[in-house]
Design goal:
The complex is a heterodimer.
Chain A: H1 10-14, H2 17-32, H3 38-63, E1 68-70, E2 75-77, H4 79-106, H5 110-129, H6 133-151, H7 158-189, H8 194-202, H9 208-225, H10 233-240, H11 243-249, H12 252-267, H13 273-293, H14 298-315, H15 321-350, H16 365-368, H17 370-384, H18 390-404, H19 408-434, H20 448-466, H21 469-482
Antiparallel strand pairs in A: 1-2
Chain B: H1 4-24, H2 28-53, H3 56-87
Helix pairs in contact in B: 1-2, 2-3
The chains are: A mainly alpha, B mainly alpha.
Amino acid sequence: MSSVEAIPQTADYVRILPELVLSLFGIVVMMLEPLIDERRNQQALGTLSLIGSVAAILASLYQAAYPGFAFWNMVKVSNFSVFFHVLVTTVAAIVILTSYEYMSVERIRAGEYYSLILLGTVGMCLMSSAVELVLIFIALEISSISTYILVGFRRGEAASSESSLKYFLLGSFATAFFLYGIAIIFGASGSTNFDKISQVLSSEHVPALAYVGIALMFIGLAFKVAAAPFHIWTPDVYEGAPAPIVGFMSTAPKAAVFAVLLRILFEANAPGRMWLIWVSAALSMCLGNIAALVQTNIKRLLAYSSIAHAGYLLIAFATAPEVGISAAMFYAAAYAAMNVGAFAVVSHFANAGERYVTLDDYAGLGRRSPTLASTLTIFLLSLIGIPVTGGFFAKFYVFSAALRANLVGLTIIAIINSAIAAYYYLRIIVVMYMREEREEVPIMHIPLALGAALVISLAATIYLGILPGRLLGYAQRAATEVLPSQGASTSGTAFALPK
Amino acid sequence: MVPLPYYLVLSGILFGCGVTGFLIKRNVIAIFMSIELMLNGVNLSFVAFAAHWRALSGQVFVFFVMVVAAAEAAVGLAIIIAVYRTRETLNVDQVNLLKL
């Protein structure tokens, strides 16, 4: 506790303003739910949550003018945290827009659903701004527990509760590892604050305990981002969870966990991170892409694809911090845009009870609904990494950062994997445009909210593919804040290539 | 005073018991209890380290862990009830609708 002030100042509250706004709206939505009548509440509560998430985006932008620490070094507002705040809250807004139609088709009670999205977002926002392991742990749990419930939201469906159970058990298992890692880091450094931890880990004699701690924390976080070899839960959970929620949980919490990983590995200057990441990235890419080749369920296919993408993103963590952090941030943003959009299409197309989620159901979609098919095509092309989409530059920055760090082997594995991945993404496109259409699959009219969600994610995907400079520039400025500031202590150990 | 390594070894053993239980138990409730055991193993090392460093933050952390564990238990048991309603079993081998 460096500060003697015992009472929080106004600036402290400004620095957690987006979290306050989101919590407030989350609580109000939950309390209003029983008061509003059954028919109307879906739309009204959805709109209220949408207002909440847009207000949170604005609050994050407002907050950017007040960088600094709050609440006795618990929270640090910087360009880095603002970047992830805006990313996570925007994803939440898009998912809420996607859910409008889904909720009415599936007849789910809306109150808890929307407020859990908002409250989960609080946790994700806090994860990106917390610089204290206590707060990171609690934020991680706020986001995880909300997602456990959201995954099982189609309560009547056996598959949904089953996936919720699997996610819950494996998620808590991972949390325990993360917590053990925190305990050991605390033991090695005597503090839970990043400043102090960073000093200890950058010194000449890094305690051997710290390596164990970092490895355990990495296991816990790798579970949450679905990186191999801790990825087995992903396809099952994604298959059973409501489609808009899959779009949410494959992007927002992942981005937030990557923010935490960036802090732990770079700001705290974790020793011995190289091989951990090398192995995990290579395995994620290979296992994810190869397993995706044989999938027939589109949600499972995208689940394996998300494992592979976690692998590509992890490559950035093995590179030099100056380029690695910004490449990872750009990748997280581009992946969020294209994946949330792809799942918006999937959840619209799935129809009541998520009946149409196999690849065969998509046959002939190109003729029957050209708008839907072409939108999905652009998202899939972006997932492959074709130029003029965000996915291209995301991969480009990560791979060039890897080459600059002399990670030739890993880059070759990544490029071979990108080629393998092109096969199964293109297969969906081929099925949509070349295969005989199936009349029994109904095509629903695209409602306004879903249209807006699609337009936003499409615009973001293409914008990042044509003008990536601005976002990358912002990410680079943010990256300098994450690097340990004590110049003297970082020499030598800040970035050690394997011999 | 008992030296620090004793506590750490005990905490490691508790955590290990939890991991083993998680992997070999077939009943959902037993698996869930194993996770709690893992968390309590971690709590022990927090307290031991806090005493070693004379830093209160380690002890405060334990309270937060307990609160989080309670929240997790509430949600977890609710999910278990939801699964039991649809499947009428608590054996994880029979909860196999989705292929793993």
